Amino acid sequence: MTSWFLFAAAGAPEGGLFDLDATLPLMAIQVVVLTFILNALFFRPVGRNVEARESFLATTRTDAKQKVLQAQRLEADLSNQLKEARQKAQSLVVDAEEEMDKLYRAALASAQAEANASREVARREIDRERKQALGQLKADAELLGDQIVQRLLAAT
Amino acid sequence: MVPLSFPLPFAELEVGRHLYWQIGGLKIHGQVFLSSWLVIGALLALVVAGTRKLERDPRGAQNLLEFLWEYLRDIAREYIGEKAYRDWLPFIGTLFLFIFVSNWGGALVPWKLIHLPSGELGAPTADINTTIALALLVSLAYFYAGLSRKGFRYFEYYVEPTPIMLPFKIVEDFTKPLSLSFRLFGNILADELVVAVLAFLVPLIVPLPVMFLGLFTSAIQALIFATLAAYYIGEAVHEEAH
User: Fold this and answer.
1) Which of A42, A44, A51 is the best residue to mutate to test the B interface, defined by the most B CB atoms within 10 Å of its own CB?
2) Contact criterion met (CB < 8 Å) for B128 and A37
3) Domain that holds residue B203
4) What's the structural domain count of chain B?
5) Do A38 and B93 touch (CB under 8 A)?
6) Distance CA A11, CA A5 (A)
7) Cβ A56–B54 below 8 Å, yes or no?
8) What is the pLDDT tens value at each position of chain A, 156 positions in all?
9) What is the ipTM of this complex?
10) For residues B50 and B60, is the Cβ–Cβ distance under 8 A?
11) Domain ranges of chain A
């Protein structure tokens, strides 16, 4: 049984830790071939895949950002329109209320005027009829008085 | 099984023994290739399973693969820079995945169940040949990256910011692969040795914390190797702002 460090100490004719031989160039060739195989099977396809995904994500993200911006612009537009529409509706309501008020007042005023006029007419009529009636009464009274005076005078 | 009456039971550890295969006149370490094929097979199986049907909403293994891809892309992009990282992502990513799966495979797969005529299976990265091969690939990669991007202006890097740096930068070209390979090799081998020694001394429970520590070290070493490779390449392709 040979102790292992005797081999390591290069005492043996064959073998040893630092036994360099044709393994070295063959291994180098093997690794170079492996590099080309892995490049064809692994690095190129996976790299293409990953980079395609990265660019896909980037474009999708910019698209989404643009869409968000557009949506925000649209929202601002629409809320402006909504505000304008509300203001317009408000002013319409105010206008309508004012007009209604005006109409109401006008109708009220004309109705009052008409009522006043017809009351005046009625008052005049009453006055005239009272005067007429008074004149009639006065004439009747004078006539009666005259008849009384004549009958009295005739009796005496 | 190991007899318990040994004064030093870890004599059973077979460090430095290899399963030799002859190809022409060349000798190679068979156990390293066997385990590396398992590692590569596992990687390819995962990749094929996860990319069979790629969808925009990932499901199953595709999630894991996309996570890995983004993780590696972040490493490459951070250290190599926005301009050049695409060319080097497969290399950095392969280094990371190969080292990571090798390290974890070495720590998690019960290799002892498979008996080899000589040597034993383990993490491919616990063999100095593998780590030197990876480190030399990194050196070639950063030279190639610098030269192909900047031409001979690449060598301006050696005299910037002052020509005094020239010898240090030349020495750096040698220390970079050396430190890369020995760091990985040493960490993984040491981790396997510690776990094996502890498992021989106290077979139950006690090695578990060390095993977890080993998993942690393995992952960190893969990350360090990939990060340093990316950093060296980034340094080579970096344009000074004149």
Assistant:
1) A42
2) no
3) 9-237
4) 1
5) yes
6) 9
7) no
8) 444 444 444 444 466 778 888 888 999 999 999 999 999 999 999 999 999 999 999 999 999 999 999 999 999 999 999 999 999 999 999 999 999 999 999 999 999 999 999 999 999 999 999 999 999 999 999 999 999 999 888 887
9) 0.87
10) yes
11) 23-116
